[in-house]
Amino acid sequence: MLKKILKRTGIGLAILLGVVISFLLILAIVHKKSLANEREEIIPNGQLVVVNGRSMHVYIEGDNENAPLLIFMSGGGTAAPVYDFKPLYSLLSDEYRIAVVEKIGYGYSEIADIPRDIDTILSETRAALAAVGVSSPYVLVPHSMSGLEALRWAQLYPDEVTGIIGIDMAIPSVYIDGVVKVPRFQLALLSGLASVGIQRFLPVSDLSLTADEHRQAKLLFYRNTLNKTFSNEAKSVLDNAIIVKDGGVPDIPILLLVSDGKELSEKWISYQEEFAEQSGSKIEYFDCGHYIHQHEPEQIADLLRDFMSDVSE
């Protein structure tokens, strides 16, 4: 088809490739300069702490120090977790303390080309929370891939976790059985395109943010999209899933908030139901996409309050 188009229009393949390469080179130069100019505009709204020699960002909201602490844990590759979760936690911080821990490579945290095994990721999260002066017990609120980290947390440190509220969270079997796959070639291709700044042509939802917050979310999206830290995490996800599966199902209250699965796999819901049966979890269904907390924050907030009441009894 491409050859026919080129023949009809008289455009040679070499010329077309030259145009594409020139465009990408110019885009890469502009992107690199823009990142340098935007660096001073990126202003964390929480606390930056040093963990293992690298900067991590933790945002805390809610003045009642005696209230239960909810730890929001972002899905894989989310560029700006502190803004991604805001539609939900802004409905809750009057009643509970909330913390958003941005992992290495996410949000305002440092980008680094380092191994992303599950126990290292978990140790960094726990160290970041300790560095800002908060302590367990916690209720974990993971989205997507961070479900593995939440389950591992409950396996290794059961005294620190009183419950898990999974927002369409991944469970080990979806990776092990190939229900959700990490396509390495496509990931490498998209990461390459992100490195030259192709994401600058993509829209960034305002997520009910203020103008300043939306600007910050855009800057973080430009900087963080498919960076090397996330690429390493994605490549490690199968090994991490096996480790979590081998650790068994933690014996704690779990609430599963499940999307329609259309953005993930036709088997997504059945695997969530199987895990709910194994773990004794309560499950709630949503007729929306994977980022449920952006589609239905009010409904989730109500379900979360009910869950917290049951946990505290």
Give the amount of beta strand, in percent: 5-15%
How would a crystallographer describe the biggest sheet? 8 strands, mixed
Q: Any idea of the CATH class? A: Alpha Beta
Outline type? globular
Total of domains:
1
Q: Strand order of the main beta sheet, please?
A: 1-2-4-3-5-6-7-8
- Give the tally of β-strands: 8
Distance from N terminus to C terminus (CA atoms, Å) equals: 65 Å
Residues in helix, %? 40-55%
Structural Rg: 21 Å
Q: Which CATH architecture is right?
A: 3-Layer(aba) Sandwich
Rounded mean pLDDT is: 93
Alpha-beta content class = alpha/beta
What pattern of helices and strands is seen along the backbone?
HHEEEHHEHEHEHHHHHEHEHH
Task: Determine the number of helices (DSSP H or I, runs of at least 4 residues).
Answer: 14
The CATH superfamily is Alpha/Beta hydrolase fold, catalytic domain
